[in-house]
Amino acid sequence: MGEFKSGFVTLIGRTNVGKSTLINLLVGEKVAAIANKVQTTRTAIKGIVNRENSQIIFTDTPGIHKPKTKLNETMVETSFLSIPDSDLILFVIEATSEDIGRGDRIILDKIKEAKRKTILIINKIDLVQKESLLNLIDIYSKEYNFTAVIPVSAKKEKTREIILEEIEKNLKPGPAYYDMEEYTDQTLRQLAEETIREKALRVLDQEVPHGIFVEVEKMELRTNKKGEEIYDVEATIYCLRNSHKGIIIGKNGEMLKRIGTMARKDMEQNFGIKINLKTWVKVKEDWQENDSIVSKFKLKK
Fold it and tell me: How many structural domains is the chain composed of?
């Protein structure tokens, strides 16, 4: 057995390159909300991987995009703030790129500035021919001296071991910062909010884009008559407009019921405990410009 190693690894990349799918695969638990939409991840979520000889702490950052609101500005800021604090960066790009696009260029410049050890992860390789992949590797390798370049498909299980091995190789000896049983430093409340939000985004499709946020107002543990532990969870889904509220609730409340059922099942599986979930929908027109709400999405030190 070698010396125990540990370190903080930041995942960074443009919106929708598959960072959340990758972090969930690496951590082996459903930590980041996965929805096939842009800007699903708003906060810098930490996922923790405990291996025999190492502890790897992942930060998944919001995707880089052009900010339009105060919330979006905060999200982009959060992404860049985590670069200098990392021991290692995983820069995720899409195999389908033919050149370094504007968003990737911005990230690349920040990495150069920080002079951090960086592993380039080229995701979605199943979508391209080998030739264009080699061309892309060549373009990026001329720009920065990457510690490693790993072409992957984030949906494949073997991807996990390949990336974790490479990360472990590049970490310094250090202590376990978290209890070895933990896989995330998010509170159950945050995970519940994230789960409900993910399900809402998934079933609402394009009709109510990102103008929603979820707040869990109550999360209490009790024992029911059968002696089983159960969490009572009460959550509000906030949206920007009355018309959105109607869509989220759906005809005869069907849509909200569907969101609630999916979220409850997911939470029960993830938390390993029974959940009694109640959800409401409220309109809050300017929440994306509201400092107290937006500050929730800031990077917590």
Answer: 2
Structure tokens at 290: 């509201």
Residue located via tokens 């990077």: 299
Domain membership flag for residue 179: no
Work out the pLDDT band at 150, boundaries 50, 70, 90.
Answer: very high
Q: Mean pLDDT throughout 119-140?
A: 93
Q: Does the residue 63 lie in any domain?
A: yes
The whole domain housing 243 covers: 188-297
Q: Does 19 score more than 90 pLDDT?
A: no
In a domain, 178, yes or no: no
Q: What is the CATH number of the domain that holds 212?
A: 3.30.300.20
Q: Are residues 155 and 192 in the same domain?
A: no
Percent of the chain with pLDDT over 90: 29
Predicted confidence band at 91 (pLDDT cuts at 50, 70, 90)? Answer: very high
Half-sphere exposure for 293 (CA within 13 Å, toward CB)? 18
Tens-place pLDDT, residues 174-192:
988 877 666 555 567 778 8
Q: Which residue has the tokens 């299980």?
A: 157
Asked if the model's pLDDT at residue 294 lies above 60, the reply is: no
Judgement on whether residues 209 and 257 belong to the same structural domain of the protein: yes
